Amino acid sequence: MNKPLNFRVAVSADIPAMSAIRIAVRENRLNNPARVTVQMYEDYLDRLGRGWVCEHEGEIIGFSYAAKDDASIWALFVHPDKEGLGAGGPLLNLATDWLFSLGHAAVNLGTEANTRADRFYQAKGWIRGEMKDSVEVNYTLPRPLGV
After folding, report:
1. Which residue, among 110, 94, 100, has the nearest Cα to 53 in the 3D structure?
2. pLDDT confidence of residue 41
3. Rg for the chain (alpha carbons), in Å?
4. What is the mean pLDDT of residues 72-97?
5. Helix (H) or strand (E) holding 6
6. Within 10 A of 57 (CB to CB), how many other CB atoms are there?
């Protein structure tokens, strides 16, 4: 029997695990992992947004970050060895629900085109927009009625 997933707000002590997950992904990889600094992870814990982690059997297997000023998803990643356990959707919902609770009318994000992430956001009901550049596509999720 699979053990349940645990979702919680991220804290500073989670940053090494989140960074390791970000580097381990197979799609939407960073060309230069040094571009995402520990300070950036710290800033998005509370000052610039909020972050969440998903734990499975005591191990952090995924995380999300929401940026409050521009109502965007700064990060949503699940360790490639832990995909399929159901972490991605709830992590995304935690981030979008939080941004909507702040009063934003829509949430935005960008992801690499023609990837599993691209298909994931389409399947979740996000509106696929214009290509940001030759690699990334923009997505928008309008605030649900009554929220």
Report:
1. 94
2. 83
3. 15
4. 94
5. strand 5-9
6. 11
85 token code pair: 């356990």
Q: Which residues, other chains included, contact 136 with Cβ-Cβ below 8 Å and sequence gap of 6+? A: 110, 111, 112, 113
Euclidean distance between CA atoms 25 and 20, whole angstroms: 9
3-class DSSP state of 84: coil
pLDDT tens per residue, range 52-61: 999 999 999 9
Residue 130's contacts (CB-CB under 8 Å, 6 or more residues apart) are 137, 138
Joined tokens for residue 105: 């009318």
pTM assigned to the model? 0.90
Q: How high is the mean pLDDT of the chain?
A: 89
DSSP letter string, 109-142: EEEETTSHHHHHHHHTTPEEEEESSSSEEEEEEE
pLDDT at 146: 66
DSSP-assigned states of every residue in 36-77: S-HHHHHHTTTTSEEEEEEEETTEEEEEEEEETTTTEEEEEE
